[in-house]
């Protein structure tokens, strides 16, 4: 570290302090966990109770009061796709997550935005409903995944040979697939085999498998929420 041309003694260097406010079952926080694991950044994980929000969460994300929030050396960053981009720019010497070409970067951002605006909304229709709404959500979800299969093409990952921004944006949803399928009574594998092949490849990576929860645990959580909503 340099200041006015003089090197500071190492003891004055600021230690990196990285904290993640998160909820174990949320697919948005999973993105951040994977990005940090890909970069090899050590961090403190601070689980949040979303029904009983802590003053810390409200202070760190006063606008949305949602997780994930990354707190880097005391400064909060919210919104998962923005956090993942921040991580990529901050620890830029290793494991690039976004492509270097501006057009490819724009494309990657487009598809993550599509996942946020379309896939998230349709999947909620499946597990937070029954009847017609649920059927509509199932149809839409399959159409979206088929669209994403086209984007994947013959590549191993959306990022090409390595895991990238779109892969990180999408893979957390796979921990909820079992819940969507069980509640909606359909098979994603039968409809979108290429996506399921991609999920299996992602899970072979430790940065992914260690960052994702057990789909059965997610299912129990989903059942609990549905009971609370009077749906089951
Ligand atoms: C979404 C965060 C979000 O929905 C992002 O970070 O990408 N666009 C945001 N977080 C949820 C938990 S995960 O489903 C959350 O914090 N919910 C609590 C609430 O809405 O009160």
Describe this structure as you would to a colleague.
This protein is α+β, with helices and mostly antiparallel strands and 232 residues long. The chain folds into 2 domains: 10-90, 3-Layer(aba) Sandwich (Glutaredoxin); 102-228, Glutathione S-transferase Yfyf (Class Pi), Chain A, domain 2 (Up-down Bundle). It contains 11 helices and 6 strands. It has helices at 27-39, 55-60, 80-90, 102-127, 131-152, 165-171, 174-184, 188-191, 193-203, 206-209, 215-228; strands spanning 2-3, 6-7, 18-22, 44-47, 69-72, 75-78. The strands form 2 sheets. A 4-stranded mixed sheet has the order 4-3-5-6, with helices on one face. Helix 4 (102-127) packs antiparallel against helix 5 (131-152) and helix 7 (174-184) crosses helix 11. The longest helix is centred in the middle third of the chain and has 26 residues, at 102-127. The radius of gyration is 19 Å and the shape is globular. The N and C termini lie far apart (59 Å). Bound molecules: S-Hydroxy-Glutathione (GS8). S-Hydroxy-Glutathione is lined by residues 23, 26, 28, 50, 65-68, 79-81, 116.
């Amino acid at each position: 570290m340099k200041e006015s041309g003089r090197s500071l003694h190492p003891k004055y260097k600021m230690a990196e302090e990285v904290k993640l406010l998160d909820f174990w079952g949320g697919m948005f926080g999973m993105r951040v966990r994977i990005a940090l694991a890909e970069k090899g950044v050590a961090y403190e994980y601070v689980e949040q109770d979303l029904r009983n929000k802590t003053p810390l969460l409200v202070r760190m994300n006063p606008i949305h009061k949602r997780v994930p929030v990354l707190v880097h050396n005391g400064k909060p960053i919210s919104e998962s796709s923005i956090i993942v981009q921040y991580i990529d720019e901050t620890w830029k010497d290793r494991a690039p997550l976004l492509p270097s070409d501006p057009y490819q970067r724009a494309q990657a951002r487009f598809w993550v935005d599509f996942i946020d605006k379309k896939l998230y909304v349709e999947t909620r229709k499946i597990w937070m409903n029954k009847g017609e709404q649920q059927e509509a959500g199932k149809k839409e979800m399959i159409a979206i995944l088929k669209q994403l299969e086209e984007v994947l093409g013959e590549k191993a990952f959306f990022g090409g040979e390595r895991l990238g921004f779109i892969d990180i944006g999408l893979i957390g949803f796979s921990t909820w697939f079992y819940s969507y399928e069980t509640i909606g009574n359909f098979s994603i594998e039968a409809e979108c085999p290429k996506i399921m092949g991609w999920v299996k490849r992602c899970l072979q990576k430790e940065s992914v498998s260690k960052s994702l929860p057990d789909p059965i645990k997610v299912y129990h959580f989903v059942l609990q929420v549905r009971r609370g909503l009077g749906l089951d």
